[in-house]
Amino acid sequence: MGGIQSLQRRKHELSKAQAQIDTLDDHQGLGIPSFQERLESIDLFPLKSTGIDVFQVNMGKMCNQVCKHCHVDAGPDRKEIMTRETMEQCLTALKGTDIKTVDLTGGAPEMNPDFRWFVEEISALGKSIIVRCNLTIIVANPKYNDLPEFYKKHKVNVASSLPYFSAKRTDAQRGGGVFEQSIKALKMLNAVGYGLSDSELKLDLVYNPSGAFMPGDQQDLEKQFKDKLKNGYDIDFNSLFTITNLPVSRFLDYLINSGNYQAYMTELANAFNASAATGVMCRNTLSVGWDGYLYDCDFNQMLEMKLDQPNGHISEFDIESLNKRTIKINQHCYGCSAGAGSSCGGATT
Amino acid sequence: MKDTYYNKEDLNKFGNITEWQKELGDKFFSYYGSVFEEGALTKREKSLIALAVAHAIQCPYCIDAYTGDTLQKGVDEEQMMEAIHVAAAIRGGASLVHGVQMMNQVKEKTM
Q1: B73 at the A interface (CB within 8 A)?
Q2: pTM over cut 0.80
Q3: ipTM greater than 0.85, yes or no?
Q4: Residue A204: in which H helix or E strand, if any?
Q5: Residues 7-26, chain B, touching A (beta carbon < 8 A)
Q6: How far is it, in rounded angstroms, from Cα A35 to Cα A269?
Q7: How confident is the model over A291-300, as pLDDT tens digits?
Q8: Cα-based angle A174, A292, A336 (whole degrees, multiple of 5)
Q9: Does residue A283 contact residue A48 with C-beta atoms inside 8 Å?
Q10: Per-residue pLDDT tens for A71-125?
Q11: Which of A107, A216, A248, B56 has the highest CB neighbour number within 10 Å of its CB?
Q12: Chain B interface test: which of A213, A219, A260, A267 (most B C-beta within 10 Å)
């Protein structure tokens, strides 16, 4: 699996958030208006939070995979993971709110040694939990083989990336052998009841394009995925979420190296959709970094665009001020507002 | 800009053809949009037909446009290539079927 290394391991210039910001800042060089100008044109600037519904926690950059498009620059060599102390601060913050959904992501969140403890504690608070599981982690080591049972026990909504229903395109993005292992993991999830039409255990797949193009219609792709996975592998799942790749970290590096950066950004900017911009997920999400700092979304987190708030750490969590905050933006935000819109829950329009 | 007959950037300027004949241009784009709507054929099937036709008429703009469009619609590489083989078969067949005309002529002109 793998074959590539993280940008950080390669000491790549784009492993630094500031270098990415400098690239994204130059919208004039791309010949597109700034995202701020586009928001101003529809009276949506400054973009404000509408109140936190989703509390998303990035449990760390450690991962068993090194996907070519990863905006986290995650991989086995990344050691930045959330401590139990920070998780306790998350729980304290959550206790005082009526936030219903906690969304756990990474890296591979399951590789954090306190992952199961954290899920149990969140579950005890009565929150619904989404885990962004890369599938292969389930079969990566015998100690993870019981994850489907663990998820079932806590009624975790499993959201898993599968960029395509063939090995060729999946492995090109996520590493050699990933498709085959993902299929094995999906079968294990189905075996405990995940993704079946009469089951309350939700298994959603996340599709993101394997290259410099936008995702197509979510419903059409879901139909194709259901047909191919059922007929080819006898696999069931609930919904397919289409996600647009944002020009951050390794996907930004890919765009630049492949000569696609300008055309891709132009495509995103031309596909700006006012309704998608109004419904962007950062407006109802709070993103917590592995070190406890707060962000508007996971992409802003990777670009180190911390909140402009005095209480910008989970230890100083103040829902009143966070619900009224102004969202920080840059040109990468075109990704979530293009076409049918894009979020961790798929298309937004 | 390189001095070539085809410039990639021109594809994005397709809409400009309405500048010198608005009514007909608008009618064309309205028709074009309707053609590619979901109908008795799916949008995906129409996109694959367009990809094949693009190769038959050898239009570089159309090839770029419908390679991107079929990728977006979840079409895989094998399906794209099969679509092009359909175009190639029809083009090749169109030449070869005229071989019958040639054979007829030869039969008429020879003893």
Answers
A1: yes
A2: yes
A3: no
A4: strand A203-207
A5: 12
A6: 8
A7: 999 999 999 9
A8: 50
A9: yes
A10: 999 999 999 999 999 999 999 999 989 999 999 999 999 999 999 999 999 999 9
A11: A107
A12: A213
